[in-house]
Amino acid sequence: MTPEPNRSFLGLVRQLLNSLPPTERKLGEFVLDFPGDLATYTASELATLVGVSNATVTRFIQRLGYSNYEDARRQAREERSNGSPLFLSAQGSRGLEGSITSHILQAQDNIVATFNHIPAELIDDVAQALAAAGNVWFLGYRNNRNFASYLRWQLVQLRENVHVLPGPGETLGEYVAGLGSKDVLVVFALRRSVPIATRFALLAARAGTQVLYITDHFSKVSLSARWLLRCHTQAPGPLDNHASVMLLCHLLATRVLHHVGTKGRRRMASIETQHDALNEMRDDAEPARP
């Protein structure tokens, strides 16, 4: 028996868990809680950690369809670098997850590691393009949609023609024909992004659009975007830390404001005037009188 094609290691464990004998089920439940340990430990070390025999580990691995423990560990390692952040969580990390200090220190490390490779001149180059573009398009799926919407929200206060795509009920294919050399496409593709985001970025680049592709330090993507920026997102627990991503968004928006100059500040002032006219920013707002 061999593992099913395209079936993840955790998917195999979940599929068989309820049918496993008690000791193997204990091992399976542990692996689901801390899959990163399989990628790290030898079979004997894992058996000791869980409190089962080496023979139990062997039977468990073979029942999943692997010929030996190393084959299973190899797949776990691949999924650790490319897949679910659960693989970055180890059994001994629970104390770190509860430590505010550890999260703060990790966020600081992520920021330093990220901006050691993104000089101020590069950020300014991107910001100049964002300020001068005919249209600025933002794309992101899953959690990346939040980053795309956030940066778009910052820039819409400074300039016109900024859009998150696709809109409700729309497809990406409906936008390809409208992309041009005067536009900038910003793609957020931090893990775990979906492949269509990268395919759309490639099509946009071929159409002459300037592409800013923002991904994480685990990503192996290589494409002909004008700018390819990698943010460090490590965290003490299984959930990624996005402090460096948000700082990048802040820096880009701040530099765009600099480059749009007086026109951008007038737009911000006009927006504030309309907020006042609509009483949008007051808790005790009353309907505006005609």
Quick structural overview:
By secondary structure, this protein is of the alpha/beta class. It has 13 helices and 5 strands.
Give your account of this protein's structure:
α4 crosses α5 and α10 packs across α13. It is built from 13 helices and 5 strands. The chain folds into 2 domains: 9-96, Arc Repressor Mutant, subunit A (Orthogonal Bundle); 103-278, Glucose-6-phosphate isomerase like protein, domain 1 (Rossmann fold, 3-Layer(aba) Sandwich), CATH 3.40.50. A 5-stranded parallel sheet has the order 2-1-3-4-5, with helices on both faces. The protein has helices at 9-16, 22-33, 35-40, 43-50, 54-63, 69-82, 94-97, 100-115, 120-132, 143-156, 173-176, 195-206, 243-278; strands at residues 136-140, 162-165, 184-188, 210-216, 227-231. By secondary structure, the protein is an alpha/beta fold. β1 (136-140), α10 (143-156) and β2 (162-165) form a beta-alpha-beta unit. The radius of gyration is 24 Å and the shape is elongated.
Write the layout of secondary structure elements.
Blueprint: H1 9-16, H2 22-33, H3 35-40, H4 43-50, H5 54-63, H6 69-82, H7 94-97, H8 100-115, H9 120-132, E1 136-140, H10 143-156, E2 162-165, H11 173-176, E3 184-188, H12 195-206, E4 210-216, E5 227-231, H13 243-278
Parallel strand pairs: 1-2, 1-3, 3-4, 4-5
